[in-house]
Design brief:
Length: 223
């Protein structure tokens, strides 16, 4: 089991790394929110232990990014003990909330409980700006209006939304949507992107799918 600890207090981070490591877990540590986000994007974790007050990107913001992309269990471990903070953390999608100072025995019990819940469910709904995708109902809306997509267009949009803000290469998109490798000179991805844009971008002033020259495509709200 791999656990990511996002904690800016070095002493606490080392304590958690050592304790959880001795309890049989593989532990990686990020000392700020941006490094935590990078590790989350690069690897897969079974549990994330997250502080609230972090430099660069605070815990609230990082949790929102996580929940747009991943169902990974998140345990807040923070000195913020107000009831409204606990409520906010749980409403944003945290699975548990533990206040510092804490007992390691209690922390370990909560970690084991979260990990025993089994594989998390896939994220079922995605929203960026006024674009929404409901995975279970296979329904897409933009500005409240239903958008009709083919199966491949739906799969392509789902991929872009699930990796919001990440530049995806044409080869990666092809392998994920069409489950095969395409020659580098094929334009199948470009054609699919163009058709998808015609439905979810062209009729609206706010454009969400962007071309990154020489690299691929990204779905995000740009200033």
């Amino acid at each position: 089991m791999r656990i990511l600890v996002v904690e800016d207090e070095l002493k606490t981070a080392d304590y958690l790394r050592k304790g959880l490591g001795e309890s049989g877990y593989l532990v990686e540590v990020a000392l700020n929110g941006l490094d935590g986000l990078h590790l989350i994007q690069e690897g897969e974790f079974d549990l994330i232990i997250l502080d609230v007050m972090l430099p660069g990107l605070d815990g609230w913001q990082l949790l929102q990014v996580i929940r747009r992309r991943l169902p990974t269990p998140v345990l807040f471990l923070t000195a913020r003990d107000a009831v409204e903070d606990r409520v906010k953390g749980l409403e944003l999608g945290a699975d548990d909330y533990l206040v510092k100072p804490f007992s390691y025995a209690e922390l370990l019990a909560r970690v084991r409980t979260l990990l025993r819940r089994g594989p998390p469910r896939e994220v079922e709904q995605f929203r960026v700006a006024d674009l929404e995708l409901d995975l279970l109902r296979r329904r897409v809306t933009r500005a409240g209006e239903r958008v009709s997509l083919t199966n491949k267009e739906f799969a392509l949009l789902h991929l872009l939304l699930s990796r919001e803000g990440e530049v995806l290469s044409r080869a990666y998109i092809a392998s994920q949507v069409w489950q095969m490798n395409f020659d580098s000179d094929t334009n199948v991805v470009d054609v699919a992107i163009r058709r998808l844009r015609a439905k979810i971008d062209d009729p609206y002033s706010l454009k969400l799918i962007h071309t990154v020259r020489g690299m691929g495509y990204v779905l995000e709200v740009q200033p």
